[in-house]
Amino acid sequence: MPNFGQEMQLEVYGSARSTSSEPFPFACEEWEERARKVLSDEAYWYVAGAAGGGDTMRANRDAFYEWRIRPRMLVDVTDRDVSVELFGRRFPVPVMLAPVGVQGILHPDGEAAAARAAASIGVPVVLSNVSSVTLEEVAAATGDSPHWFQLYPGSNRDVMASAIARAEAAHYSAIVVTLDTKMLGWREADLRGGYLPFLKGQGIANYLSDPAFRGLLPRTPEEDPRSAIMLFLSLFANSAMSWSDVQWIRSRTRLPLLLKGILDPDDARIAIDKGADGVIVSNHGGRQVDGAVAALDALPAVVDAVAGAVPVLMDSGVRRGADVIKAIALGARAVLVGRPYAYALATGGEEAVRHYLRCLIADIDINLALSGRRTLAELNRSALERAA
Ligand code: FNR
């Protein structure tokens, strides 16, 4: 996407802004404000909330602020390239949609709308297995654009095996296993509202449509939805999950396997040892362990431990172009964004998600150029310094 940032600037500055309808915002804070207005309290807090007092969610942002970019001058940055290579495929941008479950509470088309938006501009999608829309429908929405499938390692192997087989059949090109959710975090906002979307039958489309899951029920979910919900709750997470389960998942698929939720360099080393093809440094956007290390702070040690053996991705707190530049300079191959696109989806569906992502890409492109770099490969720790 050469010059994407400047093209987008011209498009925005040069277009007569309509006065009849409010144009989409450019700042992620404004997306959140708008989502707050259109969502129910419970849906808004399900996205905006975090574990405990929200310390880790805040730390995720603070960590970005602690690093500053040191731009280089008088570099010809006319030809730029923000593409990135992952598992033998070149992606136009180093940004992916993080797996965010239950998007049906945000927009009637849920994950399908977000996936269409991302696919239309080449942004890869990581689909949560607790989606409101089935994985096959989301695969149809992405078409040939890359899509990965995220799996919560549950307690029933037949159901997991079935999900993996379905993902392969629907041409998902990687499996992401989220390790940090042996149970849901202690989320004060959801507790206050007494709100768990799954209890209302939200976010379980992949289970209700799954033959292995349905086979465990004496009556079909259509006849007895309550029992289906209870069965889901009993098997979607697995507090006993260990590295042997990762090895079992490894044995079930030839697709690249990424482990999401790695924060400790020793876990990163074990991940590679057990056959992971990539790790995602993440604290789930601060939704699991309150007080956990900020993802960006955990990144450099994981990158050092991995020592180039597999790609390291990261998420948690990424909002703007500068954040992406910093994460990549610290060794991430690519980043994932979560809440910002969820707020855009709630605000204006597919079109809004596309706008948010195009702005983010333009911001990355322009920040890269103004930092005196032409490609992401030119970014390394020498581009950054710690705030005094
Ligand atoms: C998530 N996240 C998440 N992760 C995952 O592996 N599977 C999932 O189903 C979900 N669901 C989910 C729902 C909501 C509402 C949020 C906000 C987050 C975590 C997500 O993938 C990612 O790690 C964080 O969102 C990244 O942090 P930011 O970008 O939200 O700060």
Task: Give a description of the structure.
- The chain has 388 residues and is an alpha/beta fold.
- The chain has helices spanning 4-14, 28-38, 41-48, 55-66, 110-120, 135-142, 157-169, 188-193, 205-208, 211-214, 225-235, 243-252, 265-273, 295-306, 321-329, 339-370, and strands at 67-69, 84-86, 89-91, 95-97, 125-128, 147-151, 175-178, 257-262, 278-281, 312-315, 334-337, 384-386.
- Helix content is 44%, strand content 12%.
- The strands form three sheets. The chain has an eight-stranded parallel sheet. The chain has a two-stranded antiparallel ribbon with strand order 1-12. Strands 2-3 form a two-stranded antiparallel sheet.
- Helix 5 packs parallel to helix 6.
- The longest helix is centred in the C-terminal third of the chain and has 32 residues, at 339-370.
- Ligand FNR binds at residues 46-47, 60, 98-101, 128, 130, 150, 178, 260, 282, 284-285, 287, 315-318, 337-339, 342.
